[in-house]
Amino acid sequence: MLSNIIKAFSSTARTPTRAFSSSSRALDISKVILVGRLGADPVLRNTSSGKPYYTYTVATNVGAPVEGEGGKLHPPPTSWHTVFSFNEFQHPALQKLGKGSTVYVEAELEMRPHEPNSASTDKYRYDRAFLKHQKLSVINRVKPESEQDGSDE
Question: What structural domains and CATH numbers belong to the chain?
Answer without folding.
Answer: 26-64+74-114+125-147 (2.40.50.140)
